[in-house]
Amino acid sequence: MTPISYDARRSALYTPEQRETLFVAGQAYSELQLAIEGARLAYCRAETDGAQRQRLIAALERVDFGEPELFSDAATGTQAFGAYRHADGTALVAFRGTQPEALTDLIIDLQANPVAWNQPGEPGGRVHAGFARAARAVLPAVRQWLDAGWAHRNELILTGHSLGAALATLAASVLQPTLWVAIGSPRVGDAAFAASLAAKRGVRIVDCCDAITDVPLPVFGYSHVGPASYLTRDGERVQNPDSAFIRADRLQGIAQYVAAHALEIDAVRLRELADHAPINYARAYF
């Protein structure tokens, strides 16, 4: 597999769906790789663009998944897709992250006051109000799709990037995934909510300087779910490093970024934002 280079371009951050899929037909991929590329593919505007829908279908076909089911809520601007692989009984549900031009997404992100996550089936604790509203808008349709067609599945992978990571985390608290993957996730809820997911198999990935993973601030009662799988400035994986390691790596990463990309016209100005691009997460796993 050809190594993926770090991508500082604005298109990598703001329109990640433009890049061709990383999936290669006939290649075997781990659950984590399926989740990471699935989260990036969730940015395909399949609900409104026929060409992008076909691109999503073609990408999933490369790893033997059937035609995706699309989940969309206009009021909250929430989108996700579900796909099923008959060969091994794997269901994949991927939630889309924030689209910068979508006002509905920005409104959801800004509704950061904590609210109770205690409706029927929800485990309790308090979570980000906007994330809760978006998750509740599509989870009934996701559950119906799973129960109607794929109740006897062998695996359920929930995934998402950014806002999508927050939604995947909330979905994991009410469904029974075999794996949930949160890529570049903001904090979702309080310690009580985080504790409700402790027994479920999940991975929360943080890419070096990614500023989105540091909001909302803990002072408002927010706590991350589980330890971090941290990606260093060079894309190496380190499990749950201490704060001193992260601080030193981030400082070196910022200096490295300025030296390499400061004069590039199409580069994101800050590494704290460029590291959030989905492809810069994928490069550590493909």
Account of the 3D structure:
The chain is of the alpha/beta class and 286 residues long. The chain has one domain (10-282): Rossmann fold, CATH 3.40.50. It has helices at residues 10-14, 31-41, 50-61, 103-110, 129-149, 163-174, 191-196, 243-261, 271-274, 278-282; strands at 69-73, 78-85, 90-95, 114-116, 126-128, 155-161, 179-183, 202-207, 228-231, 237-239. The strands form two sheets. The chain has an eight-stranded mixed beta sheet with strand order 1-2-3-6-7-8-9-10, sandwiched between helices. A two-stranded antiparallel ribbon has the order 4-5. Strand 2 and strand 3 (90-95) form a beta hairpin. Helix 4 crosses helix 5 and helix 5 (129-149) crosses helix 6. The longest helix has 21 residues, at 129-149. The termini are close together.
How many angstroms separate the termini? 7 Å
Radius of gyration: 18 Å
SSE-based structural type: alpha/beta
Query: Total number of β-strand segments?
Result: 10
Question: How many domains would you count in the coordinates?
Answer: 1
* Fourth CATH level, the homologous superfamily: Alpha/Beta hydrolase fold, catalytic domain
Oligomer class: single chain
Write down the overall mean pLDDT.
Answer: 97
The gist of it:
By secondary structure, this protein is α/β, with parallel strands linked by helices.
SSE order and pairing:
Elements: H1 10-14, H2 31-41, H3 50-61, E1 69-73, E2 78-85, E3 90-95, H4 103-110, E4 114-116, E5 126-128, H5 129-149, E6 155-161, H6 163-174, E7 179-183, H7 191-196, E8 202-207, E9 228-231, E10 237-239, H8 243-261, H9 271-274, H10 278-282
Parallel strand pairs: 3-6, 6-7, 7-8, 8-9
Antiparallel strand pairs: 1-2, 2-3, 4-5, 9-10
Helix pairs in contact: 4-5, 5-6
